[in-house]
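Appendix B: complex inputs.
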Amino acid sequence: MSEIEIKNLEQQFNDRIANDEKIEPKDWMPEKYRQTHIRQISQHAHSEIVGMLPEANWITRAPSLKRKVALLAKIQDEAGHGLYLYSACETLGISREELYEQLHSGKAKYSSIFNYPTLTWADMGAIGWLVDGAAIINQVPLCSTSYGPYARAMVRVCKEESFHQRQGFQIMMTLAEGTPEQKAMAQDALNRWWFPSLMMLGPTDDASVHTEQSMKWKLKRKTNDELRQQFVDQTVPQATMIGLTIPDPSLKWNEKTNHYEFDGLDWDEFWQVVKGHGPCNKDRIDARKNAWSNGKWVRDAAMAYADKESDKRIQQAI
Ligand code: FAQ
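Resulting structure:
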């Protein structure tokens, strides 16, 4: 293709982005747009799948049948989210095997938040309330992201995350209204999950390498700091409502800006976790690698069956 032809295609592409048109898999797109989407969508998919592990740890210990059913359903939803996202990512010309390989080798990241341990039942409440709460704030703007398959996947994901957030908040509310020991357990979970939940929304805008370009392409519709502020403003009154204390002594309402001021995020800890040195990174990747190798016989059996069926069709056609 000549340079002029490429320039024309780029111009048409930029016009479509400016007009809020969706880019679809067979449309022309700049190679960097494609690669950036593979990076973000695959990391998002990996996060959903790895994100099943901390909660799966509590399925057998849920305190009632009702809680067990709700938790099981929520974790299955996360598997579904991962699968929609892997499928959306495959439309960009990368295979599922390559995507898994990138996760297992450490080339692709997944969300920092899933490298923390789940120590008590209250952590199920804190994850639903805070982690799914932060995920919704991040993902609602992604429903209008520029790449069609990603935007459409996000619509259903957000509806389900909204149920997850409520089931988590309801667990926290029940514990906070319970015995002093139960309330202390809820407060302890809030203390441990608050800062990691704020940091899962990504580094501050001045340290974010991708935000500027991703905003131009309308892949991201809000910056990391905007999302974080929105999360804090939304969540602090919820904590007050159930009588829990946000573990940030500097937290205060600013009447001029109409926002909460907050502090206490440990960015060194965040980067350590992102680089693979968090409390559970090794366990999480080992669990995914084991699932992949233990599932080999299922993949082999499915392939053998598909081959047999295809042979049968060929024989019938002859
Ligand atoms: N963890 O330039 P930026 C969920 C990396 S789903 C690890 O700001 P960007 C549902 C980033 O990749 C949760 N790495 O990056 C659920 C980049 O490194 P790279 C996942 C992080 O992409 C709930 C570098 O730092 N959600 O929770 C993190 O513009 C409960 C520079 O950062 C999504 O993935 C992090 N937290 O903005 C499931 C949503 N943050 O790639 C189960 C879609 C940044 O150059 C249970 N993703 N990095 O090597 C996004 O919106 C964006 O990718 C951000 C990061 C906002 C996460």
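Residues 39-40, 43-44, 47-48, 51, 78, 109, 111-112, 127, 131-132, 135, 138, 200-203, 208-211, 214, 220, 224, 274 surround Phenylacetyl coenzyme A (CB under 6 Å).
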